[in-house]
Design goal:
Layout (H helix, E strand, L loop, with lengths): L3 H11 L4 H17 L15 H7 L4 H35 L6 H17 L2 H8 L4 H12 L6 H11 L13 H14 L8 E2 L4 E2 L2 H10 L7 H8 L7
Antiparallel strand pairs: 1-2
């Protein structure tokens, strides 16, 4: 059975899109792997109200457009979820590196980290940045939760080694629409977009890409400026 990656790649190869857009597909593949979308059949995905028609109008194949829309929404939601978890994970890891004082506090740190492991990709991201394997860390957390106190020292050492990568950025609690829009603006550059337009008469944003994200997330008050600043100051590799 063809995967989502196979189907979209084939669709893009036949669509009337620029060479720059075809090259951008490498980034889409990376996003597919991040959100697990490669296991979903595009044809069975619900129709996108915003991103799919926008891409089709600019020459993208309908199947590919639906797949990319699915990726953008899923990636936005995943990133928003990770944003919510990151502060808690960073705090728990920093505390884990400190001398133990109360067993109840230690259990709380361990439970937080295991919940983050199960419900987000924050721990994987931090370990990936540190170029370390998170599997040992997770096994030690599970052992500690089961009552094995002998693993505490090793857990603390791993937490200390991660300290340079325990960073928090401004606007950490970005919502799914804003995260998806940041990626969408990068895609829009392939079709000559990637900005926003403010209309002083209506006192609102009127550019097509902002309106499309509002449609996709059913949010008529979505503000594109934070996403635009992130997209402007970064590359796809940074996202």
């Amino acid at each position: 059975m063809a995967t989502l990656t196979d189907l979209i790649a084939g669709e893009l190869s036949q669509a009337r899109v620029s060479e720059q857009t075809r090259q951008t597909w490498q980034t889409f593949e990376r996003l597919l792997l991040q959100v697990g979308g490669a296991l979903v059949r595009v044809a069975q995905s619900p129709r996108s109200l915003g991103y799919e028609p926008w891409i089709v109008e600019r020459g993208g194949g309908r199947l590919g457009a639906r797949g990319l829309a699915h990726v953008l929404v899923r990636a936005g939601k995943r990133r928003a979820n990770d944003n919510q978890w990151r502060g808690r994970v960073v705090k728990a890891l920093r505390n884990l590196a400190k001398p133990l004082r109360r067993s109840s506090a230690l259990r709380a740190r361990i439970n937080t980290l295991l919940q983050a492991w199960e419900q987000s990709s924050v721990i994987e991201t931090i370990f990936d940045q540190a170029k370390r394997d998170e599997r040992e860390f997770v096994r030690l957390l599970e052992a500690a939760r089961a009552g094995d106190a002998s693993v505490f020292g090793r857990l603390a050492k791993l937490a200390v080694a991660l300290d340079p990568f325990l960073t928090l950025t401004r606007g950490q609690n970005r919502r799914a629409a804003s995260e998806a829009h940041t990626l969408f603006l990068h895609i829009g550059r392939s079709w000559g977009g990637g900005s926003y337009t403010w209309d002083p008469i209506t006192a609102d944003f009127i550019d097509p890409q902002t309106l499309v994200t509002r449609l996709e997330f059913n949010n008529d008050r979505f503000d594109p400026r934070p996403a635009y600043r992130r997209a402007k100051n970064s590359t796809f590799k940074d996202l």
